[in-house]
Amino acid sequence: MKSAAIIGLGDIAKVHLPILQSMSDVELVAVCDINPDKQNIAGDVRFFTDAQDMLDKVKPDVVHICLPHYLHYPMALLAAKAGSNVFCEKPLALNAAEAMQFAALEKDYPSLRFGICLQNRLNNSSVKMLDVIKSGHDGKVTGVKGVVAWHRPKAYYEASPWRGKMDTAGGGVMINQSIHTLDLMQCFAGEITSLTGNICQLLDYGIEVEDTATARISFANGATGLFMASIANSKNDNIEIGITLENAEYVIADNALFKLVEGSRELVCEDDKLPGKKFYYGASHAKAIGQYYKSLCDGTDDYIHADEGVISMKMIDAIRSSNGGAVTL
Ligand SMILES: NC(=O)c1ccc[n+]([C@@H]2O[C@H](COP(=O)([O-])OP(=O)(O)OC[C@H]3O[C@@H](n4cnc5c(N)ncnc54)[C@H](O)[C@@H]3O)[C@@H](O)[C@H]2O)c1
């Protein structure tokens, strides 16, 4: 049995909460939010408004970090010093430099485990696509395309103003909404040599962070990638990731993996679907959290380690600084 605590009781904590409460080998022992109005979100679970106080008094085995981005690394460090393992929501940190500090915690605290919630890696479609690539049956990857056309109303930034500011969010559509797509693109196509990108604001929300980003990615194996993401769409379309191999073409779309055969889509496998309005989170949080706790209990290494969250941060930094010129990674 492992004891767990959640810090930050906003939108994503509502996904972690029922998962933890449904796990037979996990006891949710405390929750924490600076906002005292969140006191009853987890029923009668012990509530704190100060994370250090909670760590000192409860000493949970695992801390779930569900906080604004600028607090991810400082809170992970605080938890590590208190002897707690960390399961952190994406992104790892505000930028690549801080992400590397976070990843270094794995070496500084070797008895603790630092997991990063890049749950879309565990979607059935992602796992199957990686199997296809690794099998070599269809040849090497020659191209990958990621398209995220989502909608975030102005109210989304008004509800949590940290989301619209560089010093608290570290960016907009790239770090907040499309980081999973950037991550999957590099999972599929491999090591990146350089990126050329542009970011802009198409909306008049008066926020600091980009709402739209594009990039061309060059991979070490010669493949190229095209990335397009925006929250200026009128609705949340399903993410589309196209993968071209030497001898076949695949697309992840509409929560499924398809092989393109003579212009038609042949279903390879379907993702589990998350019911409700937040379907676009995907349904793999439970898999990512379950995998992390299984590794803690079994002593195995099979979970998404913090250092695996550094690469998407480097991609984001490169696109931000590119301004249309190639940036070497
Ligand atoms: N994995 C995914 O698909 C996914 C989806 C949505 C959000 N997220 C991530 O989850 C994290 C949280 O996002 P959100 O949308 O839930 O944010 P939110 O603004 O809804 O919630 C953040 C909560 O943290 C609390 N908080 C702020 N400072 C605190 C502190 N010092 N101590 C304790 N509590 C504090 C706030 O009061 C708020 O309740 C972000 O990293 C975001 O990128 C991940």
How would you describe the overall organization of this protein?
The protein has 329 residues and is an alpha/beta fold. It has helices at residues 13-22, 51-58, 72-81, 96-108, 124-135, 154-159, 166-169, 173-177, 179-189, 285-298, 310-322; strands at 2-7, 26-32, 46-48, 62-65, 85-89, 114-117, 141-149, 192-200, 212-219, 224-230, 240-245, 249-253, 256-261, 264-270, 326-328. It contains eleven helices and 15 strands. The strands form two sheets. A nine-stranded mixed beta sheet has the order 14-13-12-11-7-10-9-8-15. Strands 3-2-1-4-5-6 form a six-stranded parallel beta sheet, with helices on both faces. The model has no long low-confidence stretch (mean pLDDT 96).
Features:
329 residues, alpha/beta, Rossmann fold, Dihydrodipicolinate Reductase, domain 2, 2 domains, nine-stranded mixed β-sheet, six-stranded parallel β-sheet, 15 strands, globular, binds nicotinamide-adenine-dinucleotide
Give start-end ranges of low-pLDDT stretches: none
CATH class of the largest domain: Alpha Beta
At the third CATH level, what is the topology name of the largest domain?
Answer: Dihydrodipicolinate Reductase, domain 2
Write out the distinct hetero groups bound to the structure: nicotinamide-adenine-dinucleotide
Radius of gyration: 20 Å
Describe the strand arrangement of the main beta sheet, using strand numbers.
14-13-12-11-7-10-9-8-15
Q: Distance between termini? A: 42 Å
What structural class do you assign from the helix and strand content?
alpha/beta
Q: What percent of residues are in strands? A: 25-35%
Largest sheet: 9 strands, mixed
The number of helical segments is 11
The gross shape turns out to be globular
CATH architecture of the largest domain: 2-Layer Sandwich
Please give the number of β-strands: 15
Number of domains: 2
Overall mean pLDDT stands at 96
Bin the helical content: 25-40%
Order of SSEs, N→C?
EHEEHEHEHEHEHHHHEEEEEEEHHE
CATH superfamily of the largest domain: Dihydrodipicolinate Reductase, domain 2
